[in-house]
């Protein structure tokens, strides 16, 4: 008798969900990425009970065609790449075609969308069971709303790993803030248990951008931060770095983006640490909001399912560029500033 069997699609999706859907904040991250990829200029997030009971992301992006709606929930279904070559220079945040399939296998998911302002919209629902989604007409302006309820309702082992509502809420708040810093041209709103937490308008001028950074990182960060913008041989690094006197006991105020994607990368971390090495006390951490722009074909984003890591084609060059840019900026700070510390 044959012992090897194909997994049924639901189980396959639940296994994949283990990689991308760890907690409510991972769902929020995927949904926000989809909204941004759809060209939204306004994204509204609603959560209840730390996202465990409800997460709703509503955008004014391009929407999903009626005929594509059921496909959007299928695994390995994406509108973002078609062939391997596309992956070489992927410009969207998503490309794996896994998020919605994974989320809908471990929660109750409703997707409502409309591709035009004229017609009515359509809705599909999937409740952690099969991937046969039912289509129904539904009113919706141009754009998409994804509603995710009862995360892990059918996977008790995973639900046990969830922390308190407060902790889960803090994680998802972090994720939204991280995204809000990646796209100043998009308005972000968060409501928690039906109460408005923040509502940030599009920031197009430098003053508006700095206001958003202050809202996310705190006014104390912005008041002393150095603004940098350095370009050299096809690489650009811009953003705000804290003076050495504004240092932290934890690495909790560090935002680094590569081509608009928030990443946590060893190479980048090392380059930044090295630049601060001589001006920071041992055990203290720098604070920064930095944007690295590189030719997309010189960076591989398909390294990890959560897409938090990247791989540069020319490590050494990127490392040296980040190090020397920051080193140079920090060298302009008066030496007397370096001994005080905050937090
Ligand atoms: P991926 O983002 O990797 O393509 P997802 O599972 O996150 O995979 O989404 C599947 C597809 O559903 C996307 O490729 C996109 O076409 C569509 N989609 C998902 N969310 C949205 C949205 N908010 N607006 C428009 N299209 C969306
Ligand atoms: Mg996606």
Automatic annotation (TrEMBL):
UniProt GO cellular component terms: mismatch repair complex
Entry keywords, A to Z: DNA damage, DNA repair
Gene Ontology terms: biological process: mismatch repair
Domain DNA mismatch repair protein S5 residue range list: 213-331
MF terms in GO: ATP binding; ATP hydrolysis activity; ATP-dependent DNA damage sensor activity; mismatched DNA binding
Record-stated family: Belongs to the DNA mismatch repair MutL/HexB family.
Function noted in UniProt: This protein is involved in the repair of mismatches in DNA. It is required for dam-dependent methyl-directed DNA mismatch repair. May act as a 'molecular matchmaker', a protein that promotes the formation of a stable complex between two or more DNA-binding proteins in an ATP-dependent manner without itself being part of a final effector complex.
Name of the protein described by the UniProt record: DNA mismatch repair protein MutL
Organism the protein comes from: Marinimicrobium koreense
Gene: mutL
């Amino acid at each position: 008798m044959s012992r090897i069997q194909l997994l049924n699609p639901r189980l396959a999706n639940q296994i994949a969900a283990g990689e991308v859907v760890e907690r409510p904040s991972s769902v929020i991250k995927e949904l926000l990425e989809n909204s941004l990829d759809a060209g939204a200029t306004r994204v509204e997030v609603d959560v209840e009970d730390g996202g465990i009971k409800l997460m709703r992301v509503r955008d004014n992006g391009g929407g999903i065609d009626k005929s594509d709606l059921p496909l959007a929930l299928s695994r390995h279904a994406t509108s973002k790449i078609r062939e391997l070559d596309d992956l070489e220079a992927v410009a969207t945040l998503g490309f794996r075609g896994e998020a919605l399939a994974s989320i809908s296998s471990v929660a109750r998911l409703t997707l409502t969308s409309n591709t035009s302002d004229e017609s009515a919209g359509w809705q599909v629902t999937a409740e952690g069971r099969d991937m046969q989604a039912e289509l129904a007409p539904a009113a919706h302006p141009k754009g998409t709303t994804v509603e995710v309820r009862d995360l892990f309702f059918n996977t008790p082992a995973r639900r046990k790993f969830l922390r308190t509502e407060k902790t889960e809420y803090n994680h998802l708040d972090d994720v939204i803030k991280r995204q809000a810093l990646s796209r100043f041209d998009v308005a972000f709103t968060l409501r928690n248990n039906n109460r408005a937490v923040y509502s940030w308008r599009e920031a197009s001028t430098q003053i508006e951008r700095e206001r958003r950074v202050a809202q996310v990182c705190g006014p104390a960060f912005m008041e002393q931060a150095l603004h940098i913008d350095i370009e050299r041989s096809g690489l650009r690094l811009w953003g705000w770095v804290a003076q050495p006197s504004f240092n932290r006991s934890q690495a909790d105020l560090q935002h680094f983006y590569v081509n608009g994607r928030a990443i946590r990368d060893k190479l980048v971390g090392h380059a930044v640490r090295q630049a601060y090495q001589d001006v920071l006390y041992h055990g203290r951490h720098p604070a920064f909001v930095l944007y690295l722009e590189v030719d997309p074909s010189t960076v591989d984003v398909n390294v990890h399912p959560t897409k938090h890591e990247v791989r540069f084609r020319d490590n050494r060059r990127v490392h040296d560029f980040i190090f020397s840019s920051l080193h140079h900026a920090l060298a302009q700070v008066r030496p007397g500033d370096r001994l005080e510390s905050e937090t």
